[in-house]
Amino acid sequence: MGDQLKLPFEGLRVADFAWVGVGPTVSKYLADHGAEVIRIESTTYPEALRRAGPFVDDEPGIDRSGYYANFNSSKLGMSVNLKHPRGTELAKRLVAQCDVVTESYTPGTMKRFGLDYEALREVRPDVLMISMPLYGQTGPWSPWSGYGHVLQAAAGYNHLTGWADGPPIGTGVAYTDFLVPHVAAAALIAALDYRRRTGKGQYIDFGQLDAAVHGLGTAMLDWTANGHEQVRMGNRDPEAAPHGCYRAKDGRYVVIACFTEKQWDGFKAALGRPDWCDLERMRRVWQRLNEQKEIDFHTQAWIEDHTVDPKRPDVVDPDGPEMAPIQQFTTEQVVAHFQKFGVPAGIVQSPEAMHADPQLRHRHHYWTLKHPVMGDRTYDGPAFRLSKTPGRLTKAAPCLGEDNEYVYREVLGLSEEEFIELLADGALE
Amino acid sequence: MTPPVPIPHPTGPLAGYRVLDLADEKGQLCARLLGELGADVIKVEPRDGDRTRENGPFFRGEKGPDTSLYWWTMNAGKRSITCELKLEAGRALLHQLVAQSDIVIETNMPGTSAALGLDYATLERVNPGIILVSITNFGQTGPYKDWLATDIVGSAMGGQMHLSGDDEHGPVRTLAPQAYTQGSFQAAVGAMTALYARGVNNGAGQHVDVSMQEAMANAMDNAQATWDIRRVNLQGPGVRRNNRGDKGPQYLFEAADGWVACLQAGGLIGPQGGPIIDWLSEAGEANGLDSPEWREKLGALVPLSPEDTAYVEQTMAAFARTRPKLALVEEAQRRQSGWAPVLSPREIVDCEQLAARDYWVRVQHDDLGESFIYPGAPIIFGETPWKQRGRAPHAGEHNEQVYGELLGLDAAELRRLKMRMVI
Prior knowledge:
The complex is a heterodimer.
Chain A: E1 13-16, H1 22-32, E2 36-41, H2 66-70, E3 76-79, H3 87-95, E4 100-103, H4 109-112, H5 117-123, E5 128-131, H6 148-154, H7 180-198, E6 202-205, H8 208-212, H9 219-226, E7 243-247, E8 253-257, H10 261-271, H11 285-288, H12 292-306, H13 331-340, E9 345-347, H14 351-356, H15 358-362, E10 366-371, E11 375-380, E12 384-386, H16 404-411, H17 416-425
Parallel strand pairs in A: 1-2, 1-4, 2-3, 4-5, 5-6
Antiparallel strand pairs in A: 7-8, 8-9, 10-11
Chain B: E1 18-22, H1 28-36, E2 40-45, H2 69-75, E3 79-82, H3 88-98, E4 103-106, H4 120-126, E5 131-136, H5 151-157, E6 165-166, E7 170-171, H6 178-200, E8 207-211, H7 212-217, H8 223-230, E9 240-243, E10 246-250, E11 252-255, E12 258-261, H9 274-282, H10 292-299, H11 306-321, H12 325-334, E13 340-341, H13 345-350, H14 352-356, E14 361-365, E15 370-374, E16 380-381, H15 399-407, H16 411-419
Parallel strand pairs in B: 1-2, 1-4, 2-3, 4-5, 5-8
Antiparallel strand pairs in B: 6-7, 9-10, 11-12, 12-13, 14-15
Helix pairs in contact in B: 1-6
């Protein structure tokens, strides 16, 4: 039966006016699960990520950015200059053939192009449209520009990330760009399902800040109900000890978390029951929370003593000879050792380690797709597997305007003469 | 099973669908999000209440079965029933509910669901249209499937934590648990995709296998591509930003009353830096950066020397330090530069943007005789408006309602189930 099932979004067509991180991630879900997603771009005003690296061979180029590529698998690319006299008309002719319109410009931009929801539903009454700028369509900050790097600051993530008494360093990435698209995509697909059942499209005003605040765990209610402001505390946790990140001999870091007494018992056993573990003040988690400094000190020392640097295996601790030899592990082995004793533990994996991770490989997380300019490159797949209609990445990201001929000739139904005329007139730039 | 006809009172696009939530920290937010989209979400708890009711912080710091702010946050708007899945009678009750539901969310370790009657093979027999969403640490199969993980392990093994932190201290986790959040949000997309697939495939449900590690892997910005293309491992840049594999200029600056997030050195570096240089120049604090030579150097796409970068950063730092953060951001935005303030929870609640969007809702806690401010609509729908559905439930608060209305059990029957310690 499995083979006869349709991919979820087969037969749906999406006009994707969005750019940078959030919008393209939303439409990537649709594309990777069967929709025909058409990225609408311009060579005159190229998408920001096409101008951001990494570039293949470190050579900047509009079709060479890995940043852009990763968020745009399985999509088609068309180009149109919306400032050209015929730009709006062409975009509208495309929307008339589409089920979904996505965009992420600052509010008012689509209206200036004559492509706001009211205008688009005239050409496609059941169109489902989502707008996804940083701050939504209304409010004093709605005209503000920015990227995920700054929105994570406004949304509280910087405040909650960093070292106690240190600066609010944030996540090191444009974090909200990789958080809010999932909320937007869930909402969009829910509205698509509503449309499937009722025939009604609608307009969705998605403000990235609104959604991001829902990812802050208990921080908001701790303030509104308790008047307590949570603040960054390094790798500690207000409810668990030990809870931290410890440097192994090879320079990598191991994380360990003990929330339950059972995990603490496992931790003690994994360490070989050193005396400090059995002190009365280490007995219960509320006691251990007061002893984190000492716990971190001992844990760090244990990890360092029990791991080896495979590049320098023969280096022996100068204090070593008089003591009994310590069994030493690779960093992988030390994590497996804690896991064996029922302690949640892991390695802080580098991008390189992620590519080699046997679990991710087992799940086929990274896909290798051939791009005409960039060659074979890896792309992220979705974090979920559908048992009967799994997603599949069908092609590498489009070159700018790669599918113009298909879109203009077959989807819009232009004659060859018209198409050439538009090309010559600069409407596709 | 035929898909529900949308309920005429529009409370979200999913109105009419039912979700059974058997999840812990890894999936309660997923169920909550489906509730925000309009689904009827029923939390299924053991008789003595869900374990996560013990998660802090607690209202006024007082631990109790209904005072967990974690529980309030993750379960607002859901109904609650109790049901002992370790008893066969409990599993039978649950299966009767599964027959009338659309989505089941669970977070058991792989292979342990069958004992609770929650494996896909069993649920599919009960209801071929059911969508089972299983959110686990590493996925249902594979070499790490039995590994234990909490949020920090997901953040570490998912690679995101490698990008967060600084050279001096190493990697750092975000205090608000992001591996749990990401797993939940991405699972919601999986659930919706499966729901839509059911509609176009004659009602066939399926199993949605979600990995928390993989969800974090999707939050690695361009680090994945940077390794693939440049063979460079990005790592935590502190107050700076990673720039194609190299540490870029500082992006966070201390203002008079907190911090601001700016672009590259406040936007001074880059082709759009002109208006920011003008701003410093007008204030008499440009430190010479407004000279034609500096302007050309700053606007070029060639990276600055470390000495020049330091000089520019010092200039911006001195400028920012004497001014309030919101005043800085407003003026930078007026000059087309995409700055934002670093806000704390209190400042987020107080900010004029969310107030202007009528974002916050007051949720009544009738049991405490008080109401509290909660984050509001994560999405604004034109046709199917959002509605807040009340506080998080007490354990089994809706037993009579759910078992009575959905399964037609009368009071005597419910009493019998209680005596047999099933509910």
